[in-house]
Amino acid sequence: MEIEQQALSNPTGVETIEVSGSVALLEALIAEGTEVIFGYPGGAIMPIYDALYDYKEKLNHILVRHEQGGIHAGQGFARTSGKVGVVFATSGPGATNLVTGLADAMIDSTPLVCITGQVFAHLLGTDAFQETDVINITTPVTKWNYQITDATEIPEVLSKAFYIARSGRPGPVLIDITKNAQIQKFDYSGYTPCNHIRSYRPKPLIRNEYIEKAAALINQAKKPFVLWGQGVILGEAELEFKAFVEKSGIPSAWTILGAGAIPTDHPLNVGMLGMHGNYGPNVLTNECDVIIAIGMRFDDRVTGRLDKYAKQAKIIHLDIDPSEIDKNVQTTVPVWGDCKETLPALTALIQQKTYPEWLQKFRDFEQKEIEAVINDELHPASGELTMGEVISHLNELTHGEAIIVTDVGQHQMVACRYAKLNKTRSNVTSGGLGTMGFALPAAIGAKFGAPERTVVAVIGDGGFQMTLQELGTIMQSNIDVKILILNNRFLGMVRQWQELFNQHRYSFVDIESPDFVALAAAYRIKGKSISERGEISSSLKEMLEHKGSFLLEVMVTKENNVFPMVPQGCSVSEIRLK
Amino acid sequence: MSNQNNTEKPEAKQEFTITVYTENQIGLLNRIAIIFTRRKINIHSLNTSPSEIESIHRFNIVVQETEDVVRKLSRQIEKQVEVLKVYFNTNDDIIWQEMALYKVPTDIIAEKASVERLLRENGARAVVIRKDYTVFETTGHREETDALIRILQPFGLIEFVRSARVAIIKNSDGFNRKLREFEKAEPGEDVVENEYLNKGQRIFTM
């Protein structure tokens, strides 16, 4: 092994060395700077795990409790670190358990390289034990996938996989490797990273004429409005974005995946878009004259009813993915390209401006929202606890420095609405797919992606029970994740809809939970459950100051609704405050 | 992508031929097909073949859809890693052909000279003549191959099959030069065509 390692560390040499496909795979992961692998072994991936036994010092492998947990952890890692998440799973059920995470990563543009074991090539198509057609199953939910049946393909395919996953609009890549290819020895001549594939253009060419037209439109606008999404974060263009917003003076609102690209309390940050977003940004979408959409994709939860969405406005759309232009909303000026490059070009051409009256409109709506919704949610004087006040106390203690990982449902909307975020890559949530069960495993990955930061997983009582087996991962690998369960004893978001739109017919939303604190204790995780207002701050403090993971369950009021709300099928300007 | 049409009125569905230049990669057919099936769009005809360039494959896909839908489909196809370029065209923009085979009983054909004349008039030719059956072939547009079915039906047409459409784009200068551009690390502007360049007049001024 030692000799092998020496030779491998000199990939530029002409000499080749005979290695197995599995070793070539692990060398590729090292060459790509892989810090952590989330995985679960099984029959068809055993040769890779056998090779991994000798690489324990170089590659940190975290044994998860379920492949879905593994891939969500990979997503959490990618979201907080900006690097490619790496996931291992075996064939058959191992691979199919990745599908939810792949779909989630695909719709939220998260860079992943997933390696699945596969049966021997000569058994393909024979219904062999744990054989499943993972390539075809995962085709619609991967940016690219490929089956390797010959070890000699491994270095080149892996280099393509990483390049495709991280470049352009990022996304998940799955590489299926048959067992014979993992075992097969071949003459390995080192690893060359990929930086060009002739059929693949990760970044469209930037056309200055569009930047000029966009700038002209912005310079003439009376009521311009910036909508930003995750593209700003994925493009690592936070500074360029901030410079653009500050020079232009334009009120700016975010999609939930864009949250934190500029701090929550930036004077031009006017809040959250969409179904449960803030009042002003939704109403004024239908009043602005120019929309500058940056790295966002006009999801239906953002636009509401499309034929009544910003019909009065001219739309400038900055996106790296040409297929997003005109997909949902007809664009006036498309600005194709990486916003790290297009934003500075645009900033250079726009006038330094402020829009005090226009900005004041957002603040006036905010005031209305504070009076109608936010005060009661964040500072209730009496009654049962609200989700919002828990988040509000959390803000006071973390000062907006923590990474907030959320699951899906009411608590997600509340946390995204109210969590204070000072830094980029602080908000990890399942935005597009809405995957319950995402938060706990994603928080594990988030911690590996940003080990120096506090990671708080805010989870509902329903979603927690979907992937709670990952408490085992937290226990075994000593991962410092703060778990905050907001327990309303309901599948709250569905219940809210049933209350509002199905005449209180609560159909299967009443969910019982186990004793979460006892459950945590079974996994040797310290826990606490509270239901009194006076305990919130001290308990959160105890959780945050505790060395290691901690589970805090807060019993909140059962039938609170998340408002404001744009009911499905309504225009954004028909947003309801109650 | 061709066919700039900036009218705002709802478009009518019409026949479009989508031409896709791709790498020759296992699984790509499925990756392209599911872009249609996900949107519940029926593929009327699909042909894959080599192109004028070795190792580059060419798909011809025929759908009956509005231009807006076809443009979105084309962009989704072009987004696939192993797809080089997508064009979509109406029937006016292309030269296209389909081939059909017809199996008829030889005795009836031999008896009735009129049949042979009909075949000649329809541009058909005999591929195989056996004692029991004869196979005719014709190439043309859908109406032509359909017409021959109707003609042969009374004479005991045994079997009929028609190929997918193959189409050549009238104003295309082929893919050789484009491919050389794609192979460069920084492809030039003309391969990264920006269809919006023609949209200048729509850009709003206050």
Description:
The complex is a heterodimer of chains A (about 575) and B (about 210). Chain A has three domains: about 190 residues, Thiamin diphosphate (ThDP)-binding fold, Pyr/PP domains (Rossmann fold), CATH 3.40.50.970; about 150 residues, TPP-binding domain (Rossmann fold, 3-Layer(aba) Sandwich); about 170 residues, 3-Layer(aba) Sandwich (Rossmann fold). In chain A, about 40% of the residues lie in helices and about 15% in strands. In chain A, the strands form four sheets. Chain A has a six-stranded parallel β-sheet with strand order 3-2-4-5-7-6. Chain B folds into two domains: about 80 residues, ACT domain (Alpha-Beta Plaits), CATH 3.30.70; about 70 residues, ACT-like. Chain A, domain 2 (Alpha-Beta Plaits), CATH 3.30.70. The interface between A and B is large, with 40 and 34 residues.
Give me the secondary-structure topology.
The complex is a heterodimer of chains A (578) and B (206).
Chain A (H helix, E strand, L loop, with lengths): L1 H7 L8 E4 H11 L4 E4 L6 H7 L7 E4 L3 H15 L3 E5 L3 H4 L2 H9 L4 E7 L15 H5 L5 E5 L5 H13 L5 E7 H5 L1 E4 L19 H13 L3 E5 L2 H4 L3 H11 L3 E3 L14 E4 L6 H7 L4 E5 L5 H4 L10 E6 L13 E4 L2 H11 L6 H23 L8 H12 L4 E4 L3 H9 L8 E2 L10 H11 L5 E6 H4 L6 H6 L5 E6 L4 H10 L14 H7 L3 E5 L5 H10 L4 E6 L23
Parallel strand pairs in A: 2-3, 2-4, 4-5, 5-7, 6-7, 9-10, 9-12, 10-11, 12-13, 13-14, 15-16, 15-17, 17-18, 18-20, 19-20
Antiparallel strand pairs in A: 1-8
Helix pairs in contact in A: 2-3, 2-8, 4-6, 4-19, 10-15, 12-15, 13-16, 17-18, 17-24
Chain B lengths: L13 E10 L4 H10 L7 E6 L5 E10 L1 H13 L3 E8 L3 E12 H6 L1 H9 L3 E5 L3 E8 L1 H11 L6 E4 L3 E4 L6 H8 L23
Antiparallel strand pairs in B: 1-3, 1-4, 2-3, 5-7, 5-8, 5-9, 6-7
Summarize model confidence as the mean pLDDT of chain B.
Answer: 86
Biggest interface, residues from each chain: A-B, 40 and 34 residues
Number of helices of chain A: 24
CATH class of the largest domain in chain B: Alpha Beta
Give the radius of gyration of chain B: 21 Å
The CATH superfamily name of the largest domain in chain A is Thiamin diphosphate (ThDP)-binding fold, Pyr/PP domains
What amount of the residues of chain B lies in strands?
25-35%
- Provide the CATH superfamily of the largest domain in chain B: ACT domain
Q: Summarize the main sheet of chain A.
A: 6 strands, parallel
Number of helices of chain B: 6
CATH topology of the largest domain in chain A: Rossmann fold
